[in-house]
Amino acid sequence: MTDITYIKTHEGWMFLCAVIDLFSRRVVGWSAQSRMTTDVVLQALLMAVWRRKPTDRVTVHSDQGSRFTSREWQMFLPQHNLEPSMSRRGNCHDNAVAESFFQLLQRERIRRRTYPTRDDARQDVVEYIELFYNTKRKPMQNGLVESFNGRMREECLNEHLFPTLRHARHLIAAWRDDYNHTRPHSSLDGLTPREYHQRSEEDQTLNRANL
Q1: pTM for the full model?
Q2: Of 26, 66, 120, 194, which residue is 20 to 30 A from 136 by alpha carbon distance?
Q3: What percent of the chain has pLDDT over 90?
Q4: Closest listed residue to residue 31, CA positions, set 40, 21, 20
């Protein structure tokens, strides 16, 4: 599985692409660049291929972002015995394992840190991935459940003492509605599911008009 996130520095944004082995939950490939181009995802996947050296056909899952639908990406995959798999449109849960990793990176490393340069950010992130996350951190067995439940506990449950079960259900329902409809997700190019659906409908309308 692969996805992209962005990290703030004084020089501007640094875009990080990670490739995660769904069996071991380790980051087997990564790339960090100043622009979110197809090259950043290709370099991350090339590192994963070099490390794993797959002999059998391997499925690579991603969202439907423009980097993963590009001609270069589609040509790269079969050349290295890889098969593409993509998220359903507007479904942010399909990339929950990658979302979970980026959430941990943010919480355990990036939060409350200020990076003067992109090189400083890159060095710190690589240190986290290679010297801590891949070697010392116990991998999660279910990234989807852990990511969703972890966020719900951190943002919703830990901050409240509910007088009744009805109050708890009401707040959880409101949080879930925000997560599923109004919250930006990196797997949707930084859009909310609602905005992503709207953009998809506009693209389909434009495509039909051009036929």
Answers
A1: 0.66
A2: 120
A3: 34
A4: 40
The terminus-to-terminus CA distance of the chain in angstroms comes to 34
- The angle formed by the CA atoms of residues 143, 149 and 155, to the nearest 5 degrees, is 125
Q: Can you read off the two tokens belonging to residue 88?
A: 């359903």
Asked if 18 and 27 touch (Cβ cutoff 8 Å), the reply is yes
Contacts for 148 with CB less than 8 Å, ≥ 6 apart:
93, 96, 179
The token pair at 121 is 């950010």
pLDDT in tens, 159-180: 666 777 777 778 777 877 777 6
| Residue with tokens 């919480």, as numbered in its chain | 107
Cβ-contact 34, 118 below 8 angstroms: yes
Instruction: DSSP for 126-184, please give it.
Output: HHHIIIIITTTSPPPS-HHHHHHHHHHIIIIITT---SSHHHHHHHHHHHHHIIIIIS-
Return the pLDDT at 142: 46
Give the number of residues written for the chain. 211
Report the sign of the C-alpha dihedral through residues 176, 26, 130, 18, in that order: negative
Beta-carbon contacts of residue 5 (< 8 Å; ≥ 6 apart) = 15, 16, 18, 102, 105, 186
Element (H, E) at 84: strand 82-86
As a whole number of angstroms, the distance between CA 156 and CA 136 comes to: 28
